[in-house]
Amino acid sequence: MPTVDTALSLQLYPLCGQDNAIVVVIDVLRATSAICTAFENGAKEMIPVANVEEALEYQKKGFLVGAERNGEKLEGFDFGNSPYDYMDPKIKDQTLVLTTTNGTQAIEIAKDNYMVVIGAFTNITALSDWLIKQDKNIILLCAGWKGRVNLEDSLFAGAVVERLFQSGKYETFTDASLAAHQLFLSAEGEPGHFLRNSSHRRRLSKLNLKEDIKYCLQLDKSVQIPVLQDGVLVRLQVEEKLGA
Questions:
Q1: Domain spans in the chain, listed from the N-terminal domain onward
Q2: In the predicted model, what is the mean pLDDT of residues 219-236?
Q3: CATH class name, domain 3-223
Q4: What confidence tens digit (pLDDT) does each residue in 66-84 have?
Q5: How confident is the model at residue 156, as a pLDDT?
């Protein structure tokens, strides 16, 4: 049976040591939630970039660009990384570019793996159901905050582990996966309450982004699973199994 590993921060990702796994990039507050929202609202594709300079080059070429650092939208760009930014009708059928403090950094370090997909509470059922069908090793990569572990990404990883465990198709879970799972179980189905004192939630609350937090902790606002192909995020056809 395939294994499930979890990197609770970007610094821990190299310890996973698998080049044949599906990597799920997780940055629920807010980058991966925003990415799922963009595809749910008709974006054609999204180019994740690690630094602001590269984002500026795309902007000069006429692309719509989202840029965020330290929780705030950068001046002069079209979007930040609020999911609400990507409910704008003007994104339909467009190629977007995005750079964020943590989420796009996670995509960057995972990009050479076998397969990279995007996970958030907002697409958790579509994502988990698809993962269960793949019969592949899985790495849950938590972006965290500037290389450190954070509660919200670990909690989401634990929620995915629970669904994979309940499927009966996975029997090998690393200690990090089990730790995330225990964190999820301790939340007792109330992620918002559980995360009320988390560092990033406090950080975003100070920026008056409470509505973003509330949205990002909702389940199944999207059926989209963004997948990285040749450096570009596109829609995964969820009815397909790898190799089919």
A1: 3-223
A2: 97
A3: alpha beta
A4: 999 999 999 999 999 999 9
A5: 97
Q: What pairs with residue 119 in β-bridges? A: 26
Name the pairing type of β-strands 22-26 and 72-73.
unpaired
Tell me the pLDDT tens digit for each residue of 10-46: 999 998 877 789 999 999 999 999 999 999 999 999 9
